[in-house]
Amino acid sequence: MSNDGYWFQAPPVSTRIPLPPAEPVVELVDITIDGRTVQAPKTSTILDVTRSLGIDTPTLCFLENLTPVNVCRICVVELTGARTLVPACSRKIEAGMVIQTDSPRVRLARKMVLEFLGSSVDLSTAPQAQSYIERYDAKPDRYGPRKESARTHDHAEAVDGTKARTTQVPVKIDNDLYVRDYSKCILCYKCVEACGTDAQNTFAIAVAGRGFQSHISTEADVPLPDSACVYCGNCIGVCPTGALMFKSEFDMRAAGTWDESKQTQTDTICSFCGVGCTLTLHVQDNSIVKVTSPLDVEVTHGHLCIKGRFGYQYVQNRDE
Amino acid sequence: MDLHIHGDTASPQEREAVDGLLGPAPSAWMGGLRNLNEEGRIALVGGQESRTQRHRLIEAFHAVQGRIGWVSEGALNYICQRLSVPPAEAYGVATFYHLFSLSPRPSTVVHVCDDIACRIKGGENLCQDLEKTLGPSGSGSWQRSPCLGLCERAPAALTLQAATTPRGITLAPTSGEEITQGLKQNAWPVDEPFQNLSRSIPPSGSRELRLLKRIGKIDPESIEAYILSGGYARLKQALALGSEGVIREVLDSKLMGRGGAAFPTGRKWEAVAKAPAKPHYLVCNADESEPGTFKDRLLMEGDPFAVLEGMTIAGLATGCEKGFLYLRGEYPLAGKRLALALDLARFAGFLGENILESGLNFDIEIRRGAGAYICGEETALFNSIEGKRGEPRNKPPFPVQEGVFGKPTVINNVETLVNIPLILKEGGKAYAQLGTESSTGPKLFCLSGHVARPGVYETTFGPTLRQMIEIAGGVPEGRKIQAILLGGAAGVFVGPDQLDIPLTFEGTRAANATLGSGVIIIFDDRVDMTDILTRIAEFFRAESCGQCVPCRVGTVRQEELFHRLRSQQPLVSREEELNLLKEIGQVMRDASICGLGQTASSAVESALKNLKGLFAERGQP
Ligand code: SF4
Ligand code: SF4
Ligand code: SF4
Ligand code: FES
Ligand code: FES
């Protein structure tokens, strides 16, 4: 220890308020979309540009707060000079690209993707997908009556073609907080990303199996309470089909009491800790029925923890 | 990340198998025993250290699968601890690969090929017999398999036997008798001497062999024999020429990739050599799984040093210090010979540090696939090397920019690499004189099915399909040709009226066909082509990685449709079905992520176009 009696000195207090670093300058490039030539930053995706132009490009596996996986292929557009269609959600723009977002080829691809999903997956709680089905005049029924399918690991499964195979499996109810109904899963990979590197870093679920047998699973399909799941519910937050659902919503739907037209949504700040996540409380008949979080809030971009997501029971403990 | 391990622990044998690959567990944290003297009171954690090993996940599964015959929950848990991989993710990886079993299975399992080339040589009947004697496929000691790359000796089977030293035994041609007796008495043939490989290279007249010249002639386990036959002279030459010199020769040779995509090899090399990001990687794509292809297997089994020499030249020319040879999991003999060759080459100074005193380093590691056709797709292969599910990546970025481990990567097929020493020997310009203007050099063709002498044929580009079939002895028993499949399951069917197609890249393209990997399967007039087409549809359904909707569901719907066409039970009408087939094909071609989905309808659609009278309606011709 030195002689002056102090071995630690705090740095002088700054008199300047630190500024954020300057935004890097992004080069603008010209591209042509549906005959309109526009300038956009080089780092944009085709989807960014179509959205800025007010073109409604359908997406299913894309979400603003997740890394694009480009697997559903519903957002494909026609790029002049490319052999195949390209996914708008992930393809970065390049100078001089000429793109059509509503050509017959694009419409056919989108219609077929929707028919493929509609004929194999239960889309009854996926309003977005249903509206696309209407928009593209998809006819999921033209592949024959639906078949209940059992997952096999063998390439030689017996097929006769008279029924359309589906991903039907029993609903998994193995905890009090949320329900997993993989018959409704379109394999958009969003829940895996939210559970993994994009938000929670817990890696409780992953895609298992291959091909049509691919499915979201814990290790060896163990029930959630045995898995690494921490019940942040971020997977529910990103699921576009209702395959992952609050138990409260699931039970109300089963009882026939779920009624979105009677619900209000109120934004508030979670009071459990200092992070200060924004909560959107969905209230029906004066009771909270589920909790979401807006994607565009800086603090957590729509992701929550178990307390904010599920810890609302106390609000409803009324003295009666 | 918080590693959550639940349930069983590994048995001593399972641990031993994993430790055999990764070394003993250094700490309790990684699943070892707690050693208080070494670790003190604070547990040694090694997250970073073990995570850098994560790419060895698939090899770790191989270790357990090869030792026990299946991967238990305990073994999976132990592997997860060793490599710091979350169990759900490891489970997702293991279940992607069909050679790994996650449920108990006997230690010996026979994989019997029921794919197209074997099917018409009794493979399907064989499977049906086994279904009667041994029970359904996958229920125990046997299962159906896609093409095993032994089509010239159809019908084929591969016995995989888990043991301290696991064995893979090729049975080709095989019979129900051989398989049931083998299982009953646990008696299997030993590896055949290398001379037997020559039976897969039927004499083809006076043609000069350049790529196949050593196969069956010299001992593939002797580096002396290889050197005596001119081996490794080209590596010395390459070192003298330097990177730019070698790339110039390859550009001059106009060598096109032989794996199916036919991209100019020199351009690839140039791009990687110049890529600023470091390190660079070289990958040899030896995941030969296109039904009807077996040439790479022959090259690796018969001339492993040539493959290594080609890789070393490629690696040094493109600034790589590390190469991966991604070997199809169903090729145990090739794996054995390559592993031995690697050791011998390293010992002799042809690999490793300071190669031949040049100051340059390059080494090669073998990685095995595990039963996934999709891993032949280059970006899926990269993911597999990284220890992930073999799901293709979206392109761009291309491999030369971001390949394996996100670094610039040269990826070449085995046959392409074996051409490299030859190019240096002949000189790029002289090599370009062989063959035709746009298809230069020698090419290997795999002939199988109804042809008198099935096997691998080498010829310089030029002969027509008709000439190739004649060289192979024509169709036996005086039968007529009904159809020919060019390029494998992802290729194109042509009819007997198209025999004059020149077998060159440009010639096949002009005829709306493809050379693919050099597959030529001949079907005579007795074959039920509707059965073949249905099997191809089934193949794609089973091999789709399942990532993107067009291919995951499209291949299922296409398969169902073929079953309906076959049984003449259309949903609405035959016309409607054909129209539906077109739309399914269109979306798979247009919107799938990778080549598998994009070509999944090509062969079947071409058959409907080029072959007459398929699926004719009842009562009609
Ligand atoms: S469960 Fe939901 S979020 Fe997860 S892959 Fe399926 S549809 Fe997507
Ligand atoms: S949701 Fe969780 S992290 Fe966010 S404020 Fe509430 S308690 Fe804190
Ligand atoms: S095309 Fe098929 S194999 Fe390729 S990425 Fe898509 S699902 Fe996977
Ligand atoms: S939204 Fe682009 S591929 Fe799914
Ligand atoms: S080994 Fe049977 S088809 Fe190739």
> How much is the average pLDDT of chain B?
94
Strands of chain A, total number: 14
| Structural class determined from secondary elements of chain B | alpha/beta
Q: Which regions of chain A have little confidence, pLDDT < 50, spanning 5+ residues?
A: none
Per DSSP, the total helix count of chain A is: 7
Strand order of the largest sheet of chain A: 2-1-5-3-4
Helix content of chain A: 10-25%
Strand content of chain A: 15-25%
Query: Helix content range of the residues of chain B, please?
Result: 40-55%
Q: Please report the distance between the alpha carbons of the first and last residues of chain B.
A: 65 Å
> What strand line-up does the widest sheet of chain B have?
10-9-13-11-12
Major beta-sheet overview of chain B: 5 strands, mixed
Bound molecules: iron/sulfur cluster, FE2/S2 (inorganic) cluster
Largest interface pair: A-B, 60 and 68 residues
| Broad shape of chain B | globular
Task: Please describe what this structure looks like.
The complex is a heterodimer of chains A (320) and B (621). By secondary structure, chain A is an alpha+beta fold. Chain A contains seven helices and 14 strands. The longest helix of chain A has 17 residues, at 104-120. The radius of gyration of chain A is 24 Å and the shape is globular. The relative contact order of chain A is 0.10. Chain B is α/β, with parallel strands linked by helices and 621 residues long. Chain B has 24 helices and 13 strands. Chain B has helices at 12-22, 36-39, 47-51, 57-68, 73-83, 87-94, 116-134, 176-185, 223-228, 233-253, 265-274, 295-302, 304-317, 332-347, 378-385, 414-426, 428-433, 465-471, 505-510, 529-543, 549-566, 574-591, 595-599, 602-610, and strands at 108-113, 142-145, 157-161, 167-171, 280-286, 320-327, 363-368, 409-413, 442-449, 455-460, 481-486, 492-494, 519-524. In chain B, the strands form three sheets. A five-stranded mixed beta sheet of chain B has the order 10-9-13-11-12. In chain B, strands 2-1-3-4 form a four-stranded mixed beta sheet. Chain B has a four-stranded parallel beta sheet with strand order 7-6-5-8, sandwiched between helices. The N and C termini of chain B lie far apart (65 Å). In chain B, 57% of the residues are buried. The mean pLDDT of chain B is 94. The chains are: A alpha+beta (320), B alpha/beta (621). The interface between A and B is large, with 60 and 68 residues. Residues 185-191, 216, 238-241, 243-244 of chain A line the site of one iron/sulfur cluster. Chain B: InterPro entries: NADH-UbQ_OxRdtase_51kDa_CS, Nuo51_FMN-bd, Nuo51_FMN-bd_sf, NuoE_N, Nuop51_4Fe4S-bd, Nuop51_4Fe4S-bd_sf, Soluble_ligand-bd, Thioredoxin-like_sf. Chain B: Pfam families: 2Fe-2S_thioredx, Complex1_51K, NADH_4Fe-4S, SLBB. Chain B: Residues 530-575 form the NADH-ubiquinone oxidoreductase 51kDa subunit iron-sulphur binding domain. Chain B: GO terms for molecular function: 4 iron, 4 sulfur cluster binding; FMN binding; metal ion binding; NADH dehydrogenase (ubiquinone) activity. Chain B: Belongs to the complex I 51 kDa subunit family.
